[in-house]
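PROTOCOL LOG
Step 1. Enter all chains and additional molecules of the complex.
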Amino acid sequence: MVDARFLKAYKYLIWTTLALIALGGGVRAMDAGLACPDWPLCFGAIIPDYHPQVYAEFLHRALAGLVAIATVSLNWFLIRSPKVSKGLKALCWFSLVLLMAQVVMGGLTVLLQLQAKIVTTHLALGTGFLATLLWIYFSVRPQGSTQERQTFAPSQGLKIMSLVALAAVYGQILLGGLVASNYAAHVCPSFPLCHGQWVPTLQGAIGLQVIHRLGAYTLTLIILALLVWVWRELRDKEDPLSREFKAWSRWLLVALLVQMGIGIANVLLFTPPLITVLHLTFGAVLLGLALRMVYMSWVTAQRECLAAVRVPPSEKPQFADSFPQSSPAKGSL
Ligand code: HEM
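Step 2. Run joint prediction.
Step 3. Record the structure below.
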């Protein structure tokens, strides 16, 4: 297991990456994406002269540099550690690949003058990168005793529902990226109807906005279904991991409701920068929450922490899935 200082550093890296994504939204909202016309320098200088838009873009690059250095250092530590499993090392490498791709995409975003596909790919890679950091962090932090993990036994259905919710959140983020990068935010200035109809068209900019709205409704249904499932399956379970899982599901609902409110405000108030940044940030928060639920149901409940020293097979917890009938009764911890 890694030490507490490493965990703290990784946590800071994750928060800084979230701030970087938010700042990226700020750069777009301020129309500052091309404020530094060259790359990697800005007006041929490492530190450009002060101008609000130039500095927003410059700070985004500087923070990206900080995130890159921290990611390489911390992941390199894990890659070199003999206690870390091969799977986790592969994920560390993957996050480094995403980081490199993200640096190149950031450059292309500027050099190709904010092409919609590039901007959306930049968002997809950025949020994907955040997800890999979170997964690595979940894997190296303490995960409860073997007994706790044995007691927490989500059904196959619940595991699949968590995965569906995660995929739906990510899909919705990508749709949002398309709306933003195609300047489709203002084409339906009302809510819930768009030009007096629920679905005036699925084509062009209006179509993108409508599909993003339909995506939000679908995501809401999926998350509500997940919550009902969690409630029905775990309502009587009071072991620490079931309680934590239930708490994350409640936070997921809260974050979704806030995100819906921010999304609607984005439309009705004509995308003020602060609301746009919040909308992007809460999209990333939703992704993190859904990912935590997937991690808990697929990994925590199944086996030892990936980074932990491997345990001999005889000491490994029995997989709940292999013995679906044998879940402990209420209050067994
Ligand atoms: C509920 C889940 C939702 C998620 C996860 C989500 C996510 C996102 C993301 C990630 C973006 C891109 C932001 C950027 O690149 O700066 C976006 C853009 C946008 N979303 Fe959503 N969204 C959701 C719901 C909604 C709803 C309900 C509405 C309103 C009807 C809405 C309206 C918009 C608009 C107008 C934009 C474009 C903003 C701009 O151009 O700056 N979203 N969304």
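Step 4. Note key features.
The two ends are 25 Å apart (CA to CA).
The CA atoms of residues 4 and 100 lie 28 Å apart.
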